[in-house]
Amino acid sequence: MKKYSSCRWRLYGWYAFWLSLVLLGGFLGAWQWDRANDKQAAASARDKAPALVDPQTLPTEGAELTLNGEYISEHTFFLDNRIVDGRLGVAVLTPFKDRFGQYWLIQRGFVETGTSRDSPSITTPQKQVSITGKWQQARDDGLLFGPNLEKERLQQISLTPWQGVLPDFRYQGWVHAQTGDGVFSEWWQANVMPASRHIAYAFQWWGLALVALITMWVGRRYLYSSQKHQGGHDDSH
Length: 237
Description:
The protein is an alpha/beta fold.
C-alpha cells in the first residue's frame, strides 16, 4: 500500500512539473505577443510623429524638432563610451535655450576621443543657431555600475547633472540633433527591437508549452503502467 501511494504521488509530481512548464510557456508567449503589439503601436506613432518648430507643448516620441536659440556651452557634459565605425568616443550633451526661454538638452553627436579620459576639445557656436533632431522621452536605461556622473562624463544620458544649476528643462527628455550649427557626427538610433522578433519569441515559448504538454501526455502512460504493475505486484503478495 505504501509503494502504491508513492507511485500516486510521483504521478501528481509529474503532472505538476509539466503543467507548470505549459503555463509558463503560455504566459511568456502571451507576454511577448503583447510586447509585439506595443512595439507595432510605438513604431506607427513614431512614423506619424509631426515635424515641429520651437514647440511649446510636449512632443510625441520620435517627433522631429527644429529649435532656434543658443547653446549654454559652459554646462556641457559628455556621454561616455560611444562607438561609431569602431572608433571610441563620447556624445556631446549641451543645454539649449530656445527663443521662448525654454530649456532643452541637446545630444549634439559623436566626438572621437580614443582611450583618453580627458574631456575633448570641442567648439560651440556663441550665437543664435537653428538645429533639427529627434525627440526622445526620458526613461530608465537599466543597471548602472557605480555613479552615473564622473567628472564631466555620464554613463547614461540623464537630466540630473543640470538640476539646481540651470532652470528646469521644459520637458523630461532630450533632442538627438541631426543637423545644424554645433552638431557633430550622428551616432544615435532608436534602440527598438522589431515587433517581428517578439512574435518569434512568442511562438518559441508556445512551442515549448506544446512540447511540455505532449511530454506530459505521453509520459503519463509509463507512470500509469508502472502504477498498475506495482499495484498488481502488491496484490500478489
